[in-house]
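[audit] Reproducing an earlier prediction to check determinism. Same input, same settings, fresh worker. If the tokens differ from the archived copy the diff job will pick it up downstream; this log only records the rerun itself.
[audit] input (194 residues):
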Amino acid sequence: MLPTGVILIGGTGEIVHMNRTASVSVAENDGLRATRDGLRAERHGESALLTKLVLDAVSKSNGDGLSVGGTVLLSRHARPPLQVLISPIRTPIMSTSQPIAAIVFVVDPSQRQRPAQDVLRTLFGLTPAECRVALLLADGHAPREISQMVGVSFNTVRSQMKSIFVKTDVKRQGELIRLLLSSPGFGFKTASIS
């Protein structure tokens, strides 16, 4: 369920495991590819850098290299580049049939993400109506626009905003947006609000 692609890399740079998000990114065949030899990018220069970073991380994990990992942007045809972070692993993070030497995180910036309503209710005690308003604020909608969208008065939206600010301990809309985007529930794709 993680919104970030996670790829576990073995001791020779081979792919040991991919989560569902990473599998989707690879299946799109747009920027990132999975081969028998490991991860590759579509563009030669980016692929060489990706391979170098993965092998450096694997070397570090095996106690040989100096690398602490790295990042690379992988170009795509019509969407923003994938953001890829590679890091060595010294201790096993999960039980697999092969040892894990590195971990690769793949972020697709075109996937708009935010916390789910039930996460906001659990973390901050927001009511369903307050969750709806908070998420619409995070999407960049103005309070008057929200009142029209959900069919309540502007004063009701303002009242809900005040309650949201108190419950989340913020004072401004910008602070609320930062809080929502950094919450543990971050990562659920934007869905229509009912």
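[audit] rerun output stored. Observation attached for the diff report: The chain has two domains: 5-107, 113-189.
[audit] end
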